Amino acid sequence: MEDKTSKKQKFRMGFALSLFFLGIILFILYDTYSYIIGQYLLALKFITVLFLGLGIIIFLSNGIILFGKKNGIEKDITALISLFRVFSFSVLVILLLYLLNINITSLLVGAGFAGIVLGMAAQTTLSNIFAGLMLITTKHFKSGDMVKITTWQYPSLPATYPHDEKHPGISGKVTKIGLVYTQIIGEDKVPMFIPNNFVVQALIYNENKASGRKVSIRIELNRNKSFAEFSKIFIREIRKNKQLNSKILGMKINIEDINLDYYGIFINYKTNYEYIEMTSNKVKSLALSVSSKI
Fold first, then answer.
1. Are 148 and 75 within one domain?
2. Separation between Cα atoms, residue 52 and residue 197, nearest integer Å
3. Which domain does 117 fall in, by range?
4. Hey, which residues does 269 pair with through a beta bridge?
């Protein structure tokens, strides 16, 4: 699939360069032999500008695509390419009309007036478009990242025992940064479409850029059993499991609360976001297994 895509990119770049050089050749012919081909000057001028314009637009479009691939935002850059092409082809059409001696003054005035009216009517949409461009260029996150988006509408909740501080918001995996909306799929696998203007003003937690995510697991150990023995055997079993041990950093085991029947034990460690579910399930299973044997 990648080979086909790269072949397409090479073909487009070659086609763009061919058009560009053909346009240059036509320009040289126009400049050198204009006295010979007088009656065809307008047609030659038209074709020259057309080829040069198409060559430049295709070349720059492919340059943007390659930039997106290099920076890992090829899915997100499609919006920017679409906007660039619309603007570029509009400019090219205006130039071609001008070469055909068509009066474009009234057309430009009408387009300007229509632009003002549309801009006022679509103010929210335009703000989302510019916000989308900002998200793509600043690279705070990209498609595939796990993020949590929170704003003043979702204030942080203070820590309450035995829970840590909570940061309510919209959580999920970014699947696309579009021109107007950012698409996120939550834990329930339901896609959410969030306006870019909302996202650009939000506080964004990017799990993929974190060096490690803290994981806390609480278990209860019967008071008739030795906490020291549990800790010793548990750590030994963790080290035996090389796959699990390689994913865990800085493990600490502490007694957080005691009552008449049991110890409340917290097992704290750090791991990368993609390993949270796997490591927490194995750590819980191993902790329960050790507590039942001692």
1. no
2. 37
3. 2-121
4. 215
Same domain, yes or no: 160 and 113: no
pLDDT in tens, 57-104: 888 888 888 777 776 666 667 767 877 888 888 888 888 887 777 776
Positive/negative CA dihedral, 142, 143, 147, 152: positive
Task: Provide the token pair at 33.
Answer: 């032999």
Specify the residue for token string 């044997």: 293
Q: What sign does the dihedral 264-267-268-273 (CA atoms) show?
A: negative
pLDDT over 90, % of the chain: 3
Closest residue by Cα to residue 178 from 232, 128, 214, 107: 128
Look at residue 130 and tell me if it is in a domain: no
DSSP 159: P
pTM, two decimals, is 0.54
Indicate the burial class of 171 (C-beta count within 10 angstroms; 0-12, 13-18, 19 or more).
middle
Considering the domain architecture, whether residues 191 and 222 belong to the same structural domain is answered as no
| Residues 115 and 27 occupy one common structural domain | yes
Q: Could you report the per-residue pLDDT of 155-209, keeping only the tens digit for each? A: 555 555 555 556 677 888 999 888 788 999 988 888 999 999 889 888 888 887 7
Is there a domain that residue 133 lies in?
no
Whether 244 and 177 share a structural domain: no
Residues 178 and 92 in one domain: no
Backbone angles phi, psi at 101, to 5 degrees: 65, 30
Would residue 25 count as lying in a domain? yes
Q: Is the peptide bond between 162 and the residue preceding it cis, with omega within 30 degrees of 0?
A: yes
